[in-house]
Backbone:
């Protein structure tokens, strides 16, 4: 199980939870599991999110592996200029 | 509107073209003579990207009509090097990394050439105020000023030989 | 086999990385040979012109272009009717922005376009297109647009994030934070809450958008365009026009500046649509300067409330930021990124962030160098400075005390990896500029700033030529000298001369998808991929040598541009140079090239600290920048001159934003200053030399330790200048730009604000 930290605006889709534990070995599976557990998150994830794994921000990479002790944060998709 | 036949000299070569009287010298250089080194950044004389030298004067070619070029001598960026020998300013710009995107570079090179022809030992302040009509958005002007001062020093040294 | 350079200390251990060779495009650019967006022609070429709304908000009742089309020489007119319908999401936004549908949403919004046999004729004919408008109420300022009674620009545009009952123009909402805010503020000795405002600015690239487009009835098209991202242009044009992506080939010209404003499309689909309508004739479309300012993508304007708690020894205990931003008549103001960066320089136990993305009748905002970060920095760094002054504390010491560091929790949640903020603060403190004595009406300001940087989709090929020289094909247009840096990294990896590598920025047909040059990624991502591709060619060349020598490939090493036996045991063979291997490659196995494609990770963020001294004229309110120092973490500076160039360029744009630049609107909602005379960017006489210090805390995620540097430089100047003016005058201004009339009023009134 990996703990996924969500931003507080997402609370309304997760029954108030800011940290959700899912069984997932990759970012892609993690996002899929989140949507299965909380269908309200589907639109958010579809719109695009970045994921910070152990401090590094990963954008749009479903195959990135996760360990059970990985620090995982969902954040809004970042773009540069 | 009927076009007007213009004969003029550009970078030492006799040239001719047909100009609509509404066309600017910038339009004619770029679209009639295929000299695309001179750029349009604003069309209103505020950015200096279109700088050329006309009868010894530094002008914004977007503020000169093509038909006004009749009988004049025009120098553009394409005439700055002597064959494959770069002008010291051109060399120093590359050496000092005084360009990034390079779009303002032709205008700034022409403008600084005009400066050094009047004043071969400008102070930093004199360089900055002379260039106030040439916008650069990439460099912050620091390396441009250094390149010009270095070129001026080289040209002064060379002229003493 | 390559050493892992990111583990080593700094300069001296590389042959080429860290040196300052001439850039490969230098000769073309100083002679005028380099070709930009408008520097191309084609046989049969037509010239495009766009008809634009003069109203901030108006229903389009009727468009009659019959008079224009009747003119001989006018070959095509397009309106929204010529575009496919049924698009959704961001594709719809792009299409709606490219050409208005039923409503003109801002002054300058395109409503029709035409192509004619000369540029002058196109312009004249455009004036003959008759458009009947029904003017609607408009809203411009973000704090007006967020009111519940503001004219609703697009009901139903809010997404899932916006709470029920929000004002009609709020289209996105974000909320995040951690810790116990109340407890945090309770611990503080000083709690201040202030509001800050920034106005929209434009990236201000000197080259207007320009393209030459050709599209046939068979759906095959070509485009030459100045862009930061040719695959984005391809994808967006295909979506907006209903084309198949691969049938459109987009070639990037040299680009005369971008800074984020050329990562999207504005008039490019119009040029393609016109070409198709004109029987496939090529159409050249070049924007005028006022079109660029009115109808491309300035950045957002912001209204920000910040509250911060600090103990009297300078420890930050809690922070709260509420940001409202308008990004034009479409969602996309960078309020999320502004909030992520706002407190990023600090480790604060309790933080709350709330953000609103609001619609207004203004052009669709585009990215501008670290989008959102400068605005957030202006607010937070100004407040930090005000609190330091109130408590009598040194601004760098307070920043060091609370600095984000490796292993600390970032303001936006995750734990930081290796970062270099503290090193930049220490370098700023130790710099002579920090102790130069100041005279009357002079003041010193300090600020720090942050940008994440980005990896992204990257595809690079590296090929060995018959003579052993090397070509590298990249997809990232060169806006800051990346061709030089990539050539340097490839040459370093291969052990050959820098001059023997040529880097080409190629068109969409030549490589897999590449993300644009944005997010400070070109040197990082294309460089990293080029090194990988180089490693592949090295492996293949070693194999060719091993085969020739009849030994095990594991027994061959690559050194100084040649294959060599690994040791005396492997065999006594003279080195086989890259040129020698290349000259026979056709018969030893075929062409040798490497290719690397990935959505790259390993991105390293970049922190910076700026110190500036200003002098304010008490009679005019004019601010002169006396000194400006940029200290920023580059990870590893491949080409130090180009890193310095990014530092200086970012600082100059920030100074302009702080002192002069702003979008000025009339009460009719029309842009009042769409020319460079009135949209005042810094000129050479406005600025001093810009001192730079490159800090190198290598990024473990890149073979040479590179961190992107292009964007962070614009984030500290806004607060640094505001802080310096406060020090010089005693007057704290909280609304940008800090133009002379505002500064003068503040000095004379000694009024906060």
Residues:
């Amino acid at each position: 199980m990996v703990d996924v930290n969500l931003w507080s605006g997402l609370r309304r889709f997760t029954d108030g939870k800011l940290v959700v534990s899912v069984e997932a070995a990759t970012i892609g599976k993690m996002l899929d599991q989140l949507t299965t557990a909380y269908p309200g998150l589907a639109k958010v994830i579809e719109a695009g999110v970045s994921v910070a794994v152990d401090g590094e921000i990963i954008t749009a990479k479903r195959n990135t592996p996760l360990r059970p002790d990985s620090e995982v944060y969902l954040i809004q998709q970042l773009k540069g200029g | 509107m009927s076009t007007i036949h213009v004969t003029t000299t550009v970078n030492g070569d006799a040239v001719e073209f047909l100009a609509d009287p509404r066309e600017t010298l910038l339009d004619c250089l770029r679209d009639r003579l295929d000299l695309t080194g001179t750029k349009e950044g604003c069309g209103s004389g505020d950015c200096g990207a279109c700088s050329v030298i006309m009868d010894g004067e530094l002008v914004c070619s977007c503020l000169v009509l093509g038909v006004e070029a009749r009988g004049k001598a025009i120098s553009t960026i394409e005439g700055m090097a002597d064959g494959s020998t770069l002008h010291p300013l051109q060399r120093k710009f590359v050496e000092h990394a005084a360009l990034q995107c390079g779009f303002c570079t032709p205008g700034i090179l022409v403008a600084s050439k005009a400066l050094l022809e009047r004043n071969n030992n400008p102070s930093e302040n004199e360089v900055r105020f002379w260039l106030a009509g040439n916008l650069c958005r990439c460099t912050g002007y620091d390396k441009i000023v250094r390149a010009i001062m270095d070129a001026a020093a080289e040209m002064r040294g060379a002229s003493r030989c | 086999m390559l050493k892992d350079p990111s583990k080593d200390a700094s300069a001296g251990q590389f042959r080429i990385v860290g040196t300052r060779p001439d850039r490969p495009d230098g000769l073309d650019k100083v002679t005028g040979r380099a070709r930009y967006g408008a520097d191309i022609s084609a046989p049969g070429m037509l010239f495009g012109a766009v008809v634009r709304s003069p109203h901030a908000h108006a229903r389009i009742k009727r468009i009659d272009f019959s008079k224009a089309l009747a003119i001989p020489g006018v070959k095509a007119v397009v309106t929204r009717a010529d575009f496919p319908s049924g698009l959704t999401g961001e594709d719809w936004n792009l299409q709606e922005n490219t050409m208005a549908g039923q409503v003109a949403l801002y002054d300058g919004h395109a409503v029709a376009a035409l192509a004619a046999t000369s540029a002058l004729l196109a312009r004249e004919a455009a004036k003959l297109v008759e458009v009947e408008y029904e003017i609607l109420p408009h809203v411009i300022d973000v704090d007006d647009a967020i009111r519940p009674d503001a004219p609703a620009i697009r009901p139903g545009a809010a997404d899932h994030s916006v709470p029920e009952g929000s004002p009609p123009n709020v289209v996105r909402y974000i909320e995040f934070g951690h810790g116990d805010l109340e407890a945090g503020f309770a611990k503080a000795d000083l709690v201040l809450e202030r509001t800050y405002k920034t106005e929209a600015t434009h990236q201000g690239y000197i080259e207007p958008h320009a393209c030459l487009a050709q599209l046939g009835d068979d759906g095959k098209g070509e485009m030459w365009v100045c862009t930061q991202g040719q695959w984005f242009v391809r994808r967006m044009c295909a979506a907006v026009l209903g084309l198949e992506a691969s049938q459109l080939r987009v070639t990037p010209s040299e680009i005369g500046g971008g800074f984020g404003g050329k990562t999207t499309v504005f008039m490019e689909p119009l040029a393609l649509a016109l070409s198709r309508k004109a029987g496939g004739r090529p159409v050249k479309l070049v924007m005028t300067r006022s079109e660029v300012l009115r109808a491309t993508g300035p950045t957002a304007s912001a209204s920000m409330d910040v509250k911060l708690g600090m103990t009297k020894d300078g420890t930050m205990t809690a922070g709260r930021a509420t940001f409202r931003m308008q990004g034009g008549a479409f969602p996309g103001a960078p309020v999320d990124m502004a909030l992520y960066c706002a407190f990023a320089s600090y480790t604060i136990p309790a933080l709350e962030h709330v953000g609103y993305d609001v619609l207004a009748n203004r052009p669709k905002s585009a990215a501008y160098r670290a989008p959102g970060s400068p605005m957030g920095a202006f607010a937070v760094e100004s407040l930090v400075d005000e609190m330091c002054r109130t408590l009598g504390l040194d601004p760098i010491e307070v920043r060091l005390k609370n600095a984000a560091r490796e292993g600390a929790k970032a303001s936006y949640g995750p734990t930081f990896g290796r970062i270099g903020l503290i090193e930049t603060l220490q370098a700023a403190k130790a710099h002579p500029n920090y102790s130069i004595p100041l005279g009357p009406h002079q003041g010193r300001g300090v600020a720090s700033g942050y940008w994440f940087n980005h990896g992204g989709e990257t595809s690079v090929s590296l090929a060995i030529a018959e003579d052993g020289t090397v070509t590298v094909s990249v997809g990232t247009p060169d806006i800051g000298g990346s061709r030089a840096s990539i050539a340097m990294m490839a040459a370093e990896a291969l052990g050959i001369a820098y001059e023997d590598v040529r880097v080409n920025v190629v068109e969409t047909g030549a490589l897999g998808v590449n993300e644009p040059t944005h997010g400070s990624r070109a040197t990082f991502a294309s460089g990293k991929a080029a090194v990988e591709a180089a490693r592949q060619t090295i492996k293949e060349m070693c194999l060719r040598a091993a085969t020739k020598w009849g030994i095990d490939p594991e027994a061959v090493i690559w050194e100084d541009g040649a294959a060599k036996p690994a040791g005396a045991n492997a065999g006594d063979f003279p080195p086989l140079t890259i040129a020698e291997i290349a000259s026979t490659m056709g018969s030893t196995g075929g062409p040798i090239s490497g290719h690397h494609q990935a959505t790259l990770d390993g991105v390293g963020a970049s922190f910076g600290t700026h110190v500036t001294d200003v002098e304010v004229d008490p009679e005019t309110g004019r601010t002169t920048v006396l000194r400006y120092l940029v200290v920023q973490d580059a990870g590893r500076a491949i080409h130090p001159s180009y890193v310095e160039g990014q530092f200086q360029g970012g600082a100059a744009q920030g100074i302009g934003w702080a002192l002069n630049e702003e979008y000025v609107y009339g009460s009719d909602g029309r842009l009042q200053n769409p020319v460079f005379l009135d949209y005042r960017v810094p000129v050479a006489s406005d600025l001093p030399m810009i001192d730079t210090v490159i800090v190198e805390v290598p990024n473990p995620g890149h073979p040479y330790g590179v961190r992107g540097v292009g964007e962070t430089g614009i984030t500290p100047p806004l607060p640094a200048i505001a802080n310096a003016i406060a020090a010089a005058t005693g007057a704290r201004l909280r609304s940008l730009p800090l133009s002379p009339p505002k500064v003068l009023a503040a000095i004379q009134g000694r009024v906060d604000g």
Observations:
- The radius of gyration of chain B is 16 Å.
- The first strand of chain B starts at residue 4 and ends at 10.
- Strands of chain B lie at 4-10, 13-19, 51-54, 57-60, 73-75.
